[in-house]
Task: structure prediction
Amino acid sequence: MDSICVDMPAWAIPTKYDIRHTCGQIETVKVMGKPAAREKQIKRLETVPCLDCRVADIVAKREEIDDYFEAIAPDVASSIGDEYRRLRWEPLGDVAQSITTVERGIDIQYRLYKMAKALCDADSLREMAQVFLFHGDVDFWRSAFQDFPFQTIRRDQKTLINAFFARCKRYDTLSPVERMVYRSKK
Result:
């Protein structure tokens, strides 16, 4: 039987382009699609830092949060293992494919951290440290706080703490194994 050869349109074949990102680095990427779609994608890629810089920014934000809460609540930090405190990449799979998901999660966490640091006293921050240190996974922050009312929440400590812990209780995403490990460390 003869094999049938189908010609693909030119726009369906990935083409390599050199992209200059906002960080100044040049990256070669494969772009696919019709010419207008390619141009749109190239313009979008030129408005963001490269993947390495984006990952470095995510890790730096998470380390800043960890270091701050480790300093303010060393007893909590010592009871929670390092495997929970650090950003976990394993469930995310390919970082390049899930970078926007990770950025959304860490941006929400970082915004909450900055707000809490500005509004809360030391006792409240120590209370919040357990959540910030234990949940190193961005999926928790993205699912629990994606529609958190940052703009409408009153700028006082009590309102922030009540809203924060209400969300944490509602979106407790610990697996049974994680709960057992955490309880054994207490």
